[in-house]
Design brief:
alpha+beta, 6-stranded mixed sheet, two-stranded antiparallel ribbon, 8 helices, 15% strand, elongated
Length: 378
């Protein structure tokens, strides 16, 4: 933004200091006049006195004579105050505004795209140091966010390039080998195209969640859990995984029904796919604890470490390996869950189960429950 040039803050502070100092000097001289000089007579008085019977006349000074002597000295004092105010005010203003200069330099560096530097203003806590610390915290978050976005863009490009490269290879095979089975090529092209569409839709959904461009309304998480369970029941039967739902019948929050259903579906889908080869189980539970509506999804599976669990919400992470299967998804399941939870002012917590598998808990702001209270599902 272009602005007209004006006096610097340092100059204005200097003039303010000088003005207050001169005002204090004027008030002091006025006090001297009011409480001292006003009682001095304007004319000379000769008062006879006697000491031991001998008269000793006394002469009182007159006001005009005192003013004649006092005025030049008062002017010198005011000139000294003016000089001290200008020099001292300029020095003090510079010392006070030095942290602001460092913050300004850091802001200009950040404006050029450099987010790795920090102000690290020394000294005890005051307003300037709180501002510098807040700016350092903002820079750290921006730096981490930009790095995450760059990794995401690189991973998304890689993931999108894979189906496109596969499609190109299949088309070249079809062109160079006309006698090849067309049905097989079409089937493989359909699979690859479906995967590319799923990935694109997941990226759009992720962007929509991060922008919070949705209308908020009351949502029952228990109904979302039931709908997701019914939708994914055929997939669970195919993988030999048993689904169990429980918890309070009415678990209300406020948000987008479509996004919260997608959140629940992603969690249940991940729990089914990343499970034991046989005899796997998935538990879906909803509850209200204080001012939080909780959705918990647990599953059996491989033994996971805390380090592995910490990376599962990163985009394009698929457990311990980056493998593709018929139902492995596009690697954005938990990343979408985290974004949807954050868009609803919620939080996502992942913890490994002692016996293997994963426990995922989503905490969202709870809405006021209707009269009648909640019930428990079997």
């Amino acid at each position: 933004m272009d602005r007209a040039p004006g006096p610097s803050v340092r100059l204005r502070l200097t003039l303010s200091y000088t003005g207050f100092l001169l005002l204090a000097g004027v008030l002091l001289l006025a006090a001297v006049w009011v409480f001292l000089l006003r009682y001095v007579p304007e004319r000379a008085l000769i008062v006879p006195g006697s000491t031991g019977g001998t008269a000793t006349p006394g002469v009182f000074p007159v006001r005009s004579e005192l003013l004649r002597v006092f005025a030049p000295r008062a002017a010198v004092v005011m000139a000294v105050l003016l000089l001290l105010g200008l020099v001292g005010g300029w020095f003090l203003a510079g010392r006070m505004l030095a942290p602001v200069a460092r913050i300004t330099d850091a802001t200009r560096l950040a404006a050029t795209g450099s987010l790795s530097h920090r102000i690290r203003l020394p000294g005890r806590r005051d307003e300037f140091r709180e501002l510098a610390d807040a700016f350092d915290t903002m820079l750290a978050r921006l730096d981490a966010h930009v790095a995450e976005q760059r990794r995401f863009a690189a991973n998304a490009s890689h993931e999108l390039r894979t189906p496109l490269a596969t499609t190109k290879a299949l088309l070249e095979v079809a062109r160079t080998d006309p006698d090849r089975d067309t049905e097989e090529l079409l089937a493989r092209l359909q699979v690859v195209n479906t995967r590319a569409i799923d990935l694109t839709e997941a990226l759009l959904l992720l962007g929509r969640a991060e922008q919070r461009s949705f209308t908020r309304e009351r949502v029952d998480l228990s109904l979302a859990a039931e709908e997701a369970t019914e939708t994914l029941l055929p997939l669970a039967e195919k993988h030999g995984v048993a689904l169990e739902t429980g918890g309070e019948l009415t678990t209300l929050t406020v948000g987008s029904p479509a996004l919260l259903l997608q959140l629940t579906t992603n969690l249940v889908h991940n729990a089914i796919v990343h499970n034991l080869p046989t005899g796997g189980r998935v538990w879906i539970d909803t509850a209200v604890r204080g001012d939080r509506a909780l959705l918990t999804v647990e599953n059996t599976g491989e033994q996971l470490t805390a380090a592995q669990v910490a990376t599962l919400t990163e985009p394009f992470r698929r457990g311990t390996e980056r493998v593709h299967s018929d139902h492995a998804g596009v690697g954005l399941g938990l990343a979408i869950v985290r974004s949807i939870a954050q868009a609803h002012d919620g939080a996502l917590a992942l913890t490994p189960r002692p016996g293997g598998g994963l426990r995922v808990t989503v905490g969202l702001p709870a809405a006021e429950a209707p009269t009648g209270g909640g019930q428990t599902r079997a």
